Amino acid sequence: MDATRTQRQPAGLTALASSVKFWRAVGHTTAHVALIVGGFVTLIPLFWMISTSLKTPASVFNFPPQWIPEPVMWDNYHTALVKIMPFGLYYINTTIITAASIVGKVLSRAVVAFAFARLRWWGRDVVFILMLSTMMLPPQVTLIPQFIIFRSFGWIDTFWPLIVPAFFGGAFYTFLLRQFFLTIPLEMDDAARIDGASNLQIFARIILPLSKPALAAVAIFTFTATWNEFLTPLIYLHSKQKLTVALALSAFRGEYSTSWHLLMAASLVAMLPPLLVFFFAQKYFIQGVVFTGVKS
Amino acid sequence: MGMAASRIPWYRSRRFQENLSGWIWSSPFTIGFVVFIGGPMVASAFLAFTQWDIIRAPEWTGLANFQRLLFEDELVWISLRVTTVYSLMSVPLSIVLGLALAMLLNTGIRGLQYYRTIFYLPAVLSGVAVALLWRWLFTAEGGLLNIFLGYVGIQGPGWLTSEDWALPALVIMSLWHVGGTMVIYLAGLQGIPTDLYEAAHVDGANWWDRTRAITIPLMTPIIFYMFVMGLITALQTFTQAYIMTAGGPFNATLFFMLYLYRNAFEWFKMGYASALAWVLFAYILALTLVVFRFSRGRIYYEGDMRGR
After folding, report:
1. Residue A16: closest CA among chain B residues belongs to which residue?
2. Regarding the domain delimited by A77-295, which CATH topology (the fold level of the hierarchy) does it fall under?
3. Spatial separation of the C-alpha atoms in residues B234 and B240, rounded to whole Å
4. Among B25, B28, B137, beta carbon nearest to A199
5. The model's pTM
6. Which residues from chain A sit within 8 angstroms of residue B201, using beta carbons?
7. ipTM for the complex?
8. What are the percentages of helix, strand and coil residues in chain B, rounded to 5?
9. Mind listing the pLDDT tens digit for each residue in A32-83?
């Protein structure tokens, strides 16, 4: 493509082309400088966090700041995560809630999206518009009545209020998956149906395998959102053995508000799962963000 | 075929079977809508007109809650103002910054994916851990931000303990997550046909002309979408205020959601808190409508030109 374009250019434009090249190089250098400075600003809070988490209480406030801790206090992690609070238990609690939410959201959103994208039924368009309109509704409006419902079930201080809603409702991810399912040719369903396949078989053998990137995006976003969620667990979970990582950090902050070396150690460990998932599944994150942002 | 169809009972007819499976497959939504959205909304609308401490039965008080929050409760207005000021600072700033970063990355420079990874990284982190990290960074004595400001000869403010600087501090913190939107702008920029730029180049348009005449107009749908979504999210800010400032100092960061939370779950004024929730909903809706109205005719849709 480039070759044909150069051929068509009149000879007099060569001078222009080389000046363009020069300015492009200047532009690129400026862009690199700006981006490196920006990247530095982005990452420095995390470096500082790691550094603080490995310091002695006395050297935390040293001036000039000590970037490489001396001595390196690995023991801070043991103090914060084992001695002061049973962080392992909170990790398990949060993992249970997060894993169940992922299963619930991926499954229910995919099933409903299948109904909207692949099935013909009376009332479909009305229900679809109803679903889209719930996207406008801020969760605060339903926060209090939901609390009352779950309270009447006797579910306060259990994980159920944090898990069960994931299996029902939903608008955003359902819409996302529906859009994705619509890109799969309908002829594939028809062919399978002629061969006697049921809806369930079409869903499980054709639609789901072809939608892996979209399903992965839903799973990953649910993972980070649930792992970091604070308000809902704050409302529902109270006893010490039931806390999530976020709640435990909040309680920890109350008691050790100036022990920055311990607070940073605990916070860093709390951030670890999203960070790890990001590094291993970065492709799906970026794809998913782009799909949600641009396509809808 | 016609004969056979007339003989089978209605519940085995093809149309009924299709409708049935449609409703079964969509039932996770419809059940969820009735139990977790529709029902609670009706309940919430009712509770907004009651006084209820969650222990005794709700007591109907008519418009008393709304009268109180509109005319007597100063904190409602303070929290609405705090929330609005924060949103109107953080959302436009993050759009400008996100778009600027995306444009830098879209110049065809090398190392795109490394920069993108670095800038996107904070977007996966949120909640209490991030709030604690920034509380440490904003600490007046020994906090990293004031150390850096000290290097360039500026005496940094007390940030989170200062009535004037606490809210701007939270805005600065929100910009750390700009990479999440940057990725979307970048995808949008990459979708702009290069022949448009080449044609403009031949016509002698400089960088600024091209940005103004091609990039920005073609990006307006995405910018608009991100503005609306960003606004709705920012108006619901809670965790930062709860963890970093507890609404202080002197209510300078009393976000609406924090005030709602306190009413509902610390003081158990469920009726009043329900009324507050509806006020927030109405406010978000009104602001969104204003944005839609303002953007009318200012957004460029591809279909206008290409007749797709």
Report:
1. B202
2. MetI-like fold (1.10.3720)
3. 11
4. B25
5. 0.88
6. 20
7. 0.87
8. 75, 0, 25
9. 999 999 999 999 999 999 999 999 888 888 878 888 888 888 989 998 888 8
